[in-house]
Write a structure and sequence with these properties.
single chain; alpha/beta; five-stranded parallel beta sheet; elongated
């Protein structure tokens, strides 16, 4: 069993930044990521509010952060944490590949894209349904696509798709977007159509998506819309199950509860980034990751 001072679960903005700080503090540390480093931030079409960059795609920014982190800490991708147990002053992690012992753990496990839960959604993922316009947008150039959602992510995806030549509409269940003002203005300036008070009720197709059934919540009318692609941006669910099973306290929305030092209710267990809820911004995740690592360092030195 490999032993560490700190193990970081998740290699998104929070986890990578925590790794930079933990490594620079001289701790024997490791990042475990079940997918690939970068997390959901990889899918952001463009980031306009990260200091030092007027405009940068999420994938490009996270590659830069990841490359910097690799100078200080080992990152093991495609490895999933299955269980964490407390054993005296140590935490024992079991993954799909190995077992580890650590003095401290930082949960930076982020969130998973929320599903619509409608008929046809599961079977057409990758066959017309996507959660990442920067990954799949070019496949739909000059084709008909809808973006489902009304927040910042939905607006950003719609603008990116419009910019690369996709015929895009937004479907939103309310009568006003919940995105930032500058995004709403840009949507209006670009003339991107919005179907207000509308929900998607079913996805149809054969090998690929061909149409969707929609329902207007205000008029009660149902309709069928021919589309080639669907980009879903209706929020995220926190990946807190492993932490909760360990005994970490979570709130009613399943986000991990921490104090101002990013400590949880359990000794040696910290959390940072989107998994803690609050302001869902990349710069905030990075700051929390840094603070959690510094406080984890203090904890490790106290128990040595």
């Amino acid at each position: 069993m490999e032993e560490y001072d700190v193990i970081i679960v998740g290699a998104g903005p929070a986890g990578l930044t925590a790794g930079i700080y933990a490594g620079r503090e001289g701790l024997k540390s490791l990042i475990i990521e079940k997918n690939v480093k970068g997390g959901n931030a990889n899918t952001a079409p463009v980031i306009l509010n990260y200091p030092g960059f007027n405009s940068i795609p999420g994938l490009e920014l996270l590659k830069k952060i990841g490359k910097q982190a690799e100078k200080y800490i080992e990152i093991r991708e495609s490895e999933e944490v299955l269980e964490v147990q407390k054993n005296n002053k140590k935490l024992l992690l079991t993954t799909n590949k190995a077992k580890y012992s650590t003095t401290a753990i930082i949960f930076c496990s982020g969130t998973t894209y929320r599903k619509l839960g409608v008929k046809g959604e599961t079977e057409f993922v990758g066959k017309g349904i996507s959660y990442c316009s920067i990954c799949d947008g070019m496949l739909f150039k000059d084709r008909e696509v809808i973006v489902v959602g009304g927040g910042n992510s939905a607006a950003e995806h719609a603008l990116h798709l419009h910019d690369i030549g996709v015929n895009v509409k937004i479907i939103h269940r309310r009568d006003a977007l919940r995105a930032q003002d500058y995004l709403i203005k840009k949507i209006d300036d670009e003339g991107i159509p919005i179907l207000w008070n509308t929900v998607l009720t079913e996805i149809e197709g054969d090998m690929f998506v061909k149409s969707v059934k929609i329902h207007n919540r205000k008029t009660g009318e149902d309709d069928v819309l021919k589309v080639n692609g669907i980009f879903i941006a209706v929020g995220e669910n926190p990946n807190s199950k492993i932490a909760s099973e360990l005994g970490v306290e979570i709130n009613s929305n399943n986000y991990i509860i921490t104090d101002k030092y990013y400590k949880t209710n359990m000794d040696g267990v910290f959390a940072a980034g989107d998994i803690t809820g609050g302001v869902n911004q990349l710069i905030v995740s990075c700051g929390e990751g840094a603070a959690a690592a510094v406080n984890a360092y203090d904890y490790v030195k106290q128990v040595e």
